[in-house]
Specification:
Elements: H1 8-29, H2 36-48, E1 53-57, H3 62-70, E2 78-82, H4 88-95, E3 99-103, E4 124-128, H5 139-149, E5 152-156, E6 164-165, E7 168-169, E8 176-180, E9 194-198, H6 201-211, E10 215-217, E11 220-221, H7 232-263, E12 269-270, E13 285-289, H8 292-301, H9 321-324, H10 330-338, E14 339-342, H11 350-363
Parallel strand pairs: 2-3, 2-4, 4-5, 5-8
Antiparallel strand pairs: 1-9, 6-7, 8-9, 10-11, 12-13, 13-14
The structure holds pyridoxal-5'-phosphate.
Length: 366
Amino acid sequence: MEILFNDFKRQYSLIKEEMDSAIHEVLNSWWFILWKQVSSFEEEFAQKNWSKYCIWIWNWLDALKISLMALWVWEWDEVITTSHSAVATTLAILDVWAIPVFVDTDEYYCLDSVLIEEKITDKTKAVMPVHIYGHSCDIVEIKRICDKHGLYLVEDCAQSHFTEFNWIKLGNYWDTWCFSFYPTKNLWAYGDAWAIVTNDEEIYKKCKMIRNYGQETRYEHKLFWVNSRLDEMQAAILRVQLKHIDENTEKRRHVAKKYIDGLQWIPEIQLPWLREWSTHTFHLFVIQCERRDELMTYLKEKWIPTLIHYPISIHKQPFFDWKYSDLKLSNLDNQVQRILSLPVHPFITDEEIDYIVLNIKEFYGK
Ligand SMILES: Cc1ncc(COP(=O)(O)O)c(C=O)c1O
């Protein structure tokens, strides 16, 4: 049995007719950039997030960067963030010439809200938490701290589509929140696509201008900025995917439950901690385990793929060597040595999960 970490072929075969028809509709419309599909999707996605505005962005890094630009976060401003993420989160901060200030992780692998206040200086302008793996940070506490110190809150929700904290959808805690639709995400395009969501009309208007060469009306450029427009094809594809997101999230939860039931009695394994009053959408199913690298090799020999998200924390990336060599994030350092992501996509079968669980048990002699 060969198991895939993501199985696009299985998904496409289930929705082929619907998807092909959406793609043909775009081909027959002869409009390819920022037209009806994009605006319909912006509306539908905002609605599903219980929020007012959505702006589609083509480029993977631009959504976070445009958010910071719209909030006037700029040169030498400090942004408090996490080192446990895809590098894009920090690159967006660097791209507006601001300075990332890293805070250690909590047991949920998120930026630890308890440690934020000690990092605030007169230069701090924003906090950028990452809701990692499909779970959420303690966003109510982070929002309280932002309000107390007059800071902006820009949330990286790339991995947490429609996750709830205190039964409220992530992002509804203010200024902007950004989603990725990279093909491995819970809601995915067949190419690159991102979105910024906000409830603030001013921020919405500014982000919309920035993504399209700073123009509000055609050929009148009020701002001097980027081109990051989404095409109609990806929007049409995402509109189809959006219809299936709830059912796919339920399947991810089903897979996670099977792993939890199957692996809960193995003392060498730490299962994901789940916050009360919150939901988990299991973008990734991450365990901590002993002899992690040996287990990875053992599973690979059985055709079971696993990954590490992320093996090198951002502050330890070679391009940062000069700046953060003295920084100690002890919780994160410890987690990075032990974390392992198991396949959790919605199209994996029960039989395949049982096979994975069986092999992990065998490895630990259970
Ligand atoms: C938390 C987080 N932020 C940002 C990104 C970058 O997004 P993309 O994959 O669309 O480039 C990712 C992607 O892996 C991510 O997981």
